[in-house]
Amino acid sequence: MIVIPIAFIAVHAALAPIASAITSLFPYEQSQLTNDTLNGLKDDPRTASLVDLLSFGDGATEPIPSGSCKSFPGDEDWPSESTWKALNVSLKSALIYTTPIAAPCYDSQWGKKDVAKCNEIVGNFTKWPIHQSDPTSIYWPVYQGRTCLARIDTTEADSCMRGGYPEYAVNVSSARHVQLIVNFARNANIRLVIKNTGHCYLGKSTGAGSLGLWMHNLKTVEFLPQYESDGYRGKAFKLGAGVTVVEVYRAAEEHGVSMKGGISPSVGYVGGYLQGGGHTPLSGYWGMAADSVLEYQVVTADGDFVTASETSHADLFWALRGGGGGTYGVVTSAIVRAHPKIDVTVSEFTLGNTTNQTVSREGFFTGLRTYWESFPDYTDAGTYSWFLVFNTNGQLSLKMTFFAPGHTMESFRNLTKPWFDAIKIEGIPFAVPEKAGYYESFLPAYMEAWGRNEFPMGTATSLPGNRLLPKSLWTSAENFNATWNMLRTHIEKGRHFGGYHQAPKNPLKADNAVSSAWRNTQSFFITRSILFLETATTNDIGKSNKNLLEEILGPWRKLAPASIGGGSYLNEAAVDEPKWKEDFYGTQYERLLEIKKKYDQSGLFYATTAVGSDEWEVRDGDQGVSTQNGRLCRV
């Protein structure tokens, strides 16, 4: 955990007094940039020439003209080496010149190939810690442009290039760092990207020729036993921008409460997860994770440090709760409502043929249909599942994690009895016997279900996609049969299918930017493209991407369009989803765009498929799928 001593407590001189009147700030947030600080930099000969590039915005910055691009390495207006050195002085040596994480696997400008180091990198590349601990690496290198893949079999002919990685990154340890970089990037017309863990299915935390804010070391967690704000009085946590899901769960267990979060332990909590809405195993009780956010500390595009809450910058607060990450400002911390301690029953098993027992294809699908039919009952009971259906060389199987908060073993058995009876009647064998357990609190149940799952990362062999299926598909026999037939066809064709039963609705009656599709959802599923090699040609990736968008997702898009409450979860989606505005943001998009333009007139905060991103393009050539390996330009 990095905590910066309190050097001063001040804000941009044009602003009102610091937000500590609303909530106390972390020490690293108390270290801020002010006009007095800028005067000090002006008096320092090492940084004097830089001060104009570090000045605050005035709220009226004009966007760069149509057709113009962000400054790019090699351009005349790209900062000189002396400017970068001066910036590093202002940051107290926090600036990092990017070396691609897999560079030791190549002979390159970063040195000769180091076989031992390369072996270590390759051995860990599908595990999340190696990417989290690197200032620029991301979990899915296909969006970086695959310019320096982790491979042990490279030769002198193979090249390693920076590609879509930022040119520089800043190891952020104070709000002052964020303000300096926001101002510098805006004034110097440089692309800015924000990274915590790099866990993004769309590559939003990387970008060629950019300057990156690496937020991962802002790890402070504070329990607030008596937080009070408009509409809420009770327990809460103040969480630094670098905290991960599993770290939040551990803090909640320590203090005898529950917190909503995702199933992957490596997800960054305060950034993309909360700001993208955040589906959660506890959604059946308390809705989406964004519904529990009470306050954000934010650096805006003008470099100002503000509090966003129901009573301060309320429109910005509305947008940050579900309107997408990396879009409206840089969040340094969030205050999130804690919920009562809850017990959980977990059931895990795999259904499918064994060496001693087989099941007919129809029998398997009958059992699966019984489960699919039960979704409304299961979500009404507050439960959640994560399951995978496999069709491997014609052999069908179902891998299940059934997560039942608020249920004893007895109530879980009563709830699921019709399905387990159907499994028995159809003679579907347990390829992996059921392992069921009751837990008095969330953390041990989570650790049993997902907390030790490594969820392979670092791969560049497929493209993801998803669909949110609304409740209306379960309300009539006609709708249900159409949905079931679509599912069966999907599985029969051997396509990947990972699903959830969940219905977050809005039990906290939150007014925020969470997509209207989530309020209607009965089920959420994730699929993927046809697999391709890491070294696949652009043409092969393009074919796979086209197949995903048209053949795999197309029928589901038609079955569950936004017009009936369907959509797509913006955090785990196909990067080239054709109707992303309506599918990712639902009915909220136009209001979000107004807020985006109010707080970011120059378009500083670009992220692919983010609100307002259609005004920009990444000129990456033809790579088969949208990547961040190219300069960013106005359309």
TrEMBL record:
Listed PROSITE patterns:
FAD_PCMH
Q: Keywords on this record? A: Oxidoreductase, Signal
Q: Which family does it belong to?
A: Belongs to the oxygen-dependent FAD-linked oxidoreductase family.
Question: Do you know which PANTHER family this protein is assigned to?
Answer: FAD BINDING DOMAIN PROTEIN (AFU_ORTHOLOGUE AFUA_6G12070)-RELATED, GULONOLACTONE OXIDASE
Listed name of the protein? FAD-binding domain-containing protein
Pfam families per UniProt: BBE, FAD_binding_4
- What is the annotated signal peptide range for this record? 1-21
Where is the FAD-binding PCMH-type domain positioned along the sequence? Answer: 161-341
User: What terms describe the molecular function in GO for this protein?
Assistant: FAD binding; oxidoreductase activity
Q: Does the keyword ATP-binding apply?
A: no
